[in-house]
Design goal:
The complex is a heterodimer of chains A (197) and B (463). Chain A is of the alpha/beta class. Chain A contains eight helices and eight strands; from the N terminus they run E-E-H-H-E-H-E-H-E-H-E-E-E-H-H-H. In chain A, a hairpin with a 4-residue loop joins strand 7 and strand 8. Chain B contains 15 helices and 19 strands. Chain B has a five-stranded parallel sheet with strand order 5-4-3-6-7. In chain B, strands 17-16-15-18-19 form a five-stranded parallel sheet, with helices on one face. In chain B, a hairpin with a 5-residue loop joins strand 1 and strand 2. In chain B, helix 2 packs across helix 5 and helix 12 runs parallel beside helix 15. The radius of gyration of chain B is 21 Å and the shape is globular. Classes of the chains: A alpha/beta (197), B alpha/beta (463).
């Protein structure tokens, strides 16, 4: 996993609520056996109509809105556990997703792939949606070390929560597998002491 | 002294170590894998030069991508074939037995685990599939994980996890006639919404739950994720023990007695506290239907589509109704449908097939309806044939296929065409879930069977 770097970027607004992982990356694109290339089909059924024509109304087809930050309505990433959703967002170029509420599995998958999920209050979320509506080029700053998200255009700032362990992993590009493999002797001792299961 | 919940007991029993200010290292008893979410994890192991840490605790099958016709022939679709072949190769490379196509144990992961007796009370069970919560019916902490975590379990038989909050949902009373456990869980989801369980692990309790069969309990636990919950489970009882006893991989003889002694300690102590509690009355539940594009958008069959939803803002609500081509205030009764899908890890067990066969016996499906029954496993398929259900279904114009996930997510050829309605016993009605543009109405196997016969949505209690 790459180390997480602080972000200064414009953002892409997606106020829709309950965006499920089947929308982020539909099941028919889960047939690949590698982690790369899913960005091409990110939100594909919202980007394209059934005949393959571009859906001009969809925000990812609007050049006004770009950047490394996706801002989404509440309950983002619900549904299927497919990590391909996090891979697709990362591969497309997003490095952070901001919402008032995340589905648990998606949040874990994002953190395991260097994609930072930032939970903000519903009020803050509304304010930043409005700021982008007023100015699509409104710029944001994310500082993981300080745990701050700043919307410079309206001079608004919030702190966000993150588990200290996951923060350490993101900042240093460490993953859980390395850590767990290093715990082998403890795990074997546990197995020896617990016969049931 | 602090009273323990069932969740506390099983979780504490599995904590290998605690990281200061961080998650617990939790030991995983059983790991189910399938072709879609495992290839990148196997790749990761290879890159790190690791072997499977505990292959005897890993169970592999092919289910998501497989065709449901002519499984003895090579898979036609190239990408699906490649993914299934990749699983075969990975299992061979890592010395893992695979219950793949042609194997008598093949089937949907969450159907085969319980029927083979792999799933046992008190276990921690994971799989790269959100419906892993199904195994919670046995009193297991069972939940879906991402592929990075699949790799972690392969490498260490453990995961780094924060203990979730705990919720109890108590349902008391007798289910009315024509109401199945699928209706019960769709009802609960319609009350709590798709995010209502997020951050929590659910214990289902109450007399209604106690009176359910194991298969009906699996349907309830299966859909816990549709409320956003990490998982959902039911304390094991006599019904559970009797189901497990004698199954292929269940403990035998003295081992069973020892296990049983432990299983009997698996319950929530009186006065134990939950972070969140809900109570529902079974008498209030009717056959349920979804009208929108997430499982929280459900109504009783006698109700009309509401004009708004606590579930989503106006824009999202309107988008959902537009996608479904349904109107606010409309009743679903009488809505013409073209497809009926009986299957998926929610409702593809033998009891589901018996319910459908029993209803359609001597009846005919409507001419314009395609009715497909996809059993959850080879064992379910064989049982259905042994009971003659295949003949009853065929006589009614229903097609009994071979096992797999099928039209629940349309990764194989089994898709619902754009714009057409499908009454489905599966678990998700998301946009495009059953195929691009497909319109899914979630229901119980009984309601789905009745819709196939009538050619439209009906109130099965009046048939």
């Amino acid at each position: 996993m790459e180390k997480f770097k602080n972000i200064n970027s414009t953002a892409v607004p997606m106020p829709m609520e309950n965006i499920d992982t089947d929308q982020i990356i539909p099941a028919r694109f889960l047939k690949a056996t590698t982690r790369e290339g899913f960005g091409e089909n990110l939100f594909i059924d919202w980007r394209e109509q059934s005949d393959g024509a571009k859906n001009e109304d969809f925000v990812l087809n609007n050049n006004l809105y770009q950047g490394q930050i996706l801002i989404a309505g509440r309950n983002f990433g619900c549904g299927s556990s497919r990590e391909h959703a996090a891979w697709a967002l990362y591969d497309y170029g997003f490095r952070a997703v901001v919402s008032s509420f995340f589905a648990d599995i998606f949040k874990g998958n994002a953190l395991n792939n260097g994609l930072l999920p930032i939970t903000v209050s519903p009020e803050f979320l509304n304010q930043i949606f409005k700021a982008i509506e007023t100015d699509p080029k409104a710029s944001f700053a994310i500082d993981l070390e300080k745990q701050t998200l700043i919307c410079k255009a309206i001079d608004l700032q919030t702190n966000f929560e993150i588990n200290p362990y996951k923060k350490h992993c993101l900042l240093n590009g460490l993953d859980d597998t390395d850590f767990l493999v290093s715990q082998k002797s403890k795990i074997e001792a546990f197995e020896a002491a617990h016969v049931i299961g | 002294m602090h009273k323990k919940t069932l969740f506390d007991k099983i979780w504490n029993q599995h904590v290998v170590s605690k990281i200061e200010d961080g998650p617990d290292v939790l030991y995983i008893d059983r790991h189910f894998i399938h072709e879609v979410t495992s290839p990148q994890a196997f790749d990761g192991l290879k890159k790190r030069g690791l072997s499977l840490f505990r292959k005897e605790k890993t169970i592999a099958t092919a289910d998501h991508n497989v065709p449901t016709l002519n499984q003895h022939l090579p898979i036609k679709e190239a990408q699906s074939r490649f993914q299934v072949d990749t699983l075969i190769k990975n299992c061979k490379d890592f010395g893992l037995e695979l219950y793949g196509l042609g194997h008598p144990y093949q089937g949907i992961v969450h159907v085969i685990g319980p029927e083979l007796g792999v799933t046992q009370p008190g276990m921690t069970i994971v799989c790269g599939d959100s419906h892993t919560s199904t195994h919670g019916a046995f009193g297991c902490i069972a939940f879906g994980i991402g592929t990075s975590q699949v790799e972690q379990v392969m490498a260490s038989q453990s995961l780094l996890l924060n203990k979730p909050k705990q919720m109890r949902i108590t349902i008391d009373g007798n289910l009315p006639k024509g109401v199945l456990s699928k209706d019960l869980i769709l009802y609960v989801i319609s009350k709590l919404g798709t995010g209502g369980g997020t951050g929590h692990f659910i214990e289902y309790a109450g007399s209604t739950i106690r009176n359910l069969s194991m298969e009906a309990r699996m349907t309830v636990c299966n859909m816990s994720i549709e409320m956003g919950a990490r998982g959902g489970f039911i304390a094991p009882d006599q019904t559970t023990f009797e189901y497990v006893k004698g199954r292929t991989f269940a403990p035998k003889g003295e081992s069973f007695d020892t296990a049983l002694e432990y299983w009997k300690t698996l319950y929530t102590e009186d006065a134990a506290e939950f972070d969140t509690e809900y109570h529902f009355d079974a008498a209030d539940i009717e056959p349920m239907l979804t009208y929108g594009t997430n499982p929280g958008m459900g109504i009783k069959v006698s109700n009309n589509i509401p004009s708004s939803s606590h579930e989503s803002n106006d824009a999202s609500f309107t988008k959902a109704l537009n996608y479904m081509d349904l109107q606010k205030g409309e009743s679903l009764i009488g809505k013409k449908i073209n497809h009926v899908f009986i299957g998926s890890c929610t409702n593809a067990r033998i009891e589901d097939l018996r319910i459908v066969a029993n209803y359609v016996n001597g009846k005919q499906k409507a001419d314009h309806v395609l009715a497909m029954v996809v059993p959850g496993s080879k064992i379910v398929e064989a049982q259905a044939k042994a009971e003659g259900l295949d003949k009853v279904l065929a006589a009614a114009g229903f097609e009994l296929r071979e096992p797999g996930c099928s039209a629940c997510l349309g990764m194989n050829e089994d898709k619902v065409p754009a714009g057409e309605y499908c009454v489905s016993t599966s678990n998700r009605n998301f946009e495009g879930r059953q195929g691009p543009g497909a319109r899914t109405i979630l229901a119980s196997p009984l309601t789905a069977a009745a819709a196939a016969v009538a050619g439209e949505i009906v109130d099965v209690r009046k048939m």
